Amino acid sequence: MTIYKTTKTTFQLNWYANPYHTPLFVAQSKGWLLEEGIDLAILEACSPSDVTEVVGAGKVDMGMKAMIHVLAAKDRGIDLTSFGTILDEPPTGLIFKKSMNIKGIEDLRGKNIGYIGHFGKIMVDDLMKQAGIPQTEYKMVRVGMNVTDAIMRGEIDTGIGFTNFQRIELEELSGEPVGMLRIDELDGLGCCCFCSIQFVASDEYYKNNIPKIEGFMRALRRAMDLTIEYPDEAWDIMCRANPRLNTPLYTKIFQRTLPYFSRDLLNVERDWTKVGDFVSLYTKIFQRTLPYFSRDLLNVERDWTKVGDFCKHLDILKNDFDQNSIWTNEHVPSTGTPSVAPVTAGGVLPSKTSPFAVTPEPVAIEA
Question: What does pLDDT average to over the chain?
């Protein structure tokens, strides 16, 4: 057994451990973090709203939080640096049981609308203002991350949730189809990047621990590959680390998940459906989450710019600062090089970025 010299490092999740945290637990279970000298203590959040303050104050070494919250924290004087992405643009919006007969934003008149935190309320209020619906004609109810329970209890008619999480919970618990009004579509944003989940640390911790940040990202790079390419193994690891996620529940036809699997392992998932396997609720959430895992772990400048501009539109950001100054891709490891060289030297589309790029032979010019 190899013994590594490690240092205890704390990591704050943005909620309780759930399927979209799987790569983090894979990296821990496989020992890849230990190989990088990191003995990681993964902490669950009692209140998701506390993460930016706790990490920003240096009480916890690293953590994860949605892009919009990282920008808002900067505006409040909490200096955080994002050094990678775990979840890319999960579709987010107002979920509701089909029996509510909500077709568009006009149908929200007279409704109780649930939101997670301050920024969710701001986004909904802004949408209603755009639609010409006064605040006297709807009621905002803060329900935190418990939107599904709040709908089931009748406390709210609709609320903010992920399509790959709360929407599935509501389908399972209500026994009826669930609709969603996507915020990115209602706002014409073209992406749900405001809800992309980022790896973050305080500016001070980041600057003083570059080697550790790089080691952490190398381990997560390996874990992300395994999660996407061997999801059954990754999910087994996640369930052993968090047994409460391995609750068996009857599921709806698995094909409902297929539209979200635009990249890897589609055939494997289809085979599971063919044999009529039943999976747990959280397994279904994990499977729908797969397309949104960040394959390359990179921050995307377009997204930070767009979310920053969106925050300014919502008047969340009071101060003028460069939203692209609070993130970096410097320590995200590359995806590696091919195991074989291309048939044509340099590839059919030679470029400076090709791992097998070749320097063109100089052409002699006759005088």
Answer: 78
Backbone torsions φ then ψ of 232, nearest 5 degrees = -65, -40
d(C-alpha 186, C-alpha 282), whole Å: 28
How many whole angstroms separate alpha carbon 203 and alpha carbon 328? 11
In sequence order, which residues have a C-beta less than 8 Å from that of residue 342 and are 6 or more positions away?
A: 348, 356
Torsion over CA: 24, 28, 34, 40 (sign) = positive
Q: Which residue among 21, 69, 118, 313 is the active-site one? A: 69
| Residue 69 is a catalytic residue | yes
Q: Which residues on neighbouring strands pair with residue 161, listed in sequence order?
A: 93
**pLDDT, tens digit (0-9, with 9 covering 90-100), for 199-243:** 999 999 999 999 999 999 999 989 888 887 788 898 899 889 998
**What is the percentage of the chain residues whose pLDDT exceeds 90?**
34
Residue 190 sits at φ, ψ, to 5 deg, of 85, -5
- The structure tokens listed for 9 are 């490092």
Sheet holding 7-12, edge to edge: 38-43, 7-12, 62-66, 197-202, 80-87
- Could you give the count of Cα atoms lying within 13 Å of 164 in the half-sphere of its Cβ? 25
What are phi and psi for residue 336, nearest 5 degrees? 95, 180
Three-state DSSP class for 235?
A: helix
> What pLDDT does 267 receive?
21
Residues 6+ apart with CB under 8 A from 232: 268
Contact 176, 42 (CB under 8 A): no
Task: Give yes or no for residue 98 having a pLDDT over 50.
Answer: yes
Q: What is the pTM of this model?
A: 0.73
The Cα–Cα gap between 316 and 72 comes to: 7
Q: List for the chain the helix, strand, coil content (%; round to 5).
A: 45, 15, 40
**pLDDT higher than threshold 80 for residue 139:** yes
> Encoding tokens for residue 16?
């309780």
Q: What is the DSSP letter of 361?
A: P
Say what the pLDDT of residue 190 is.
67
Listed residue (171, 219, 192) closest to 306, CA to CA: 192
Burial of 35 (0-12, 13-18, 19+ CB in 10 A): middle
